[in-house]
Design a protein that fits this description.
There is one protein chain. The chain is α/β, with parallel strands linked by helices and about 260 residues long. The chain folds into 2 domains: about 170 residues, P-loop containing nucleotide triphosphate hydrolases (Rossmann fold); about 80 residues, no CATH class. About 35% of the residues lie in helices and about 25% in strands. It contains 10 helices and 11 strands. Strands 7-8-9-4-10-11 form a 6-stranded mixed beta sheet, with helices on both faces. Strands 1, 2, 3, 5 and 6 form a 5-stranded antiparallel beta sheet that branches. Strand 8, helix 6 and strand 9 form a beta-alpha-beta unit. Helix 3 runs parallel beside helix 5. It is globular, with a radius of gyration of 19 Å. It starts with a strand and ends with a helix.
Length: about 260
């Protein structure tokens, strides 16, 4: 299918006899927001680690734009346009927000080792870095140290640094974890905004977030996909209700 940008076939990962991910066949369509959900221990983060090659599959194949990328390492995956942001904010706390985004651009453009050069030699990257800060609403915080940002804005900075890698597919791992209601809403709208012209695959526990922005939802349980579809289809699936609630008498919407 030409509209599928990221795909796995029979993707599996075994840890000392425990099958964390089992025969996962995932299809992510270009230009969509695709959510990967499931109860704790379902294998969501392991799937992300496999897709971005932080761990190696035991078996199966990963395709990006039709190309088999299973043998690539994590740096190669990022260079071809699959870029991941992390569950725990992965920024340099004692650099400014502008410098954090600029580092991502340096990595993408091949000047990542130029830290020893004069600050002036990197100024040509500032305009691009500022454009990403502007996209996530951090323009006025450009010179602030990352450590001083409130939690919600740290996640916005993390998304800005991810944008600095110029991703075609952004993989977001629990982008709203640990946030209050107001920050959840801001980051949800931010994800929707930066999805324009990109594909987003996200692991997310907050079902209200998933319901409001995900085009497609894939549900994992015990390492296996049990269903995939839009929110209405998934939330009414008896297997999904059972997986989340332990009872087919309650709806997934109630769990949200």
């Amino acid at each position: 299918m030409s509209d599928v940008i990221l795909e796995t076939k029979n993707l599996s990962k075994e840890f000392l006899g425990f099958l964390a991910v089992s025969d996962v066949n995932l299809q992510v369509k270009k230009g969509t927001i695709h959510a990967l959900i499931g109860p704790n221990g379902a294998g969501k983060t392991t799937c992300f680690n496999l897709l971005t090659k932080f761990i190696t599959p035991s078996s199966g194949t990963i395709y990006y734009k039709g190309q088999d990328i299973t043998a690539m390492n994590s740096a190669e995956i990022a260079r071809i346009g699959l870029v991941r942001s992390f569950q725990i904010s992965a920024v340099f706390p004692h650099l400014s927000n502008l410098e954090n985004v600029r580092i991502a651009i340096q990595q993408r453009t091949g000047v990542s080792m130029h830290f020893w050069k004069s600050e002036n030699t990197l100024k040509h990257l500032n305009d691009e870095a500022m454009s990403y800060l502007d996209q996530v609403g951090l323009t006025e915080y450009a010179d602030m140290l990352a450590v001083n940002l409130p939690y919600g804005r740290k996640r916005a900075l993390e998304i800005a640094t991810t944008l600095g890698m110029n991703p075609e597919v952004m993989l977001l791992d629990e982008p709203t974890q640990g946030m209050g209601h107001e920050d959840v809403e801001k980051v949800t709208q931010l994800i929707k905004k930066v999805s324009a012209g990109r594909t987003i695959l996200m692991v997310e526990h907050n079902m209200k977030v998933v319901a409001s922005i995900a085009d497609t939802i894939t549900v994992l349980q015990r390492g296996k996909i049990i269903t995939s579809g839009n929110y209405a289809e998934v939330s009414s699936n008896p297997q999904v209700i059972e997986a989340y609630m332990g009872s087919t008498t309650q709806s997934l919407g109630a769990h949200a």
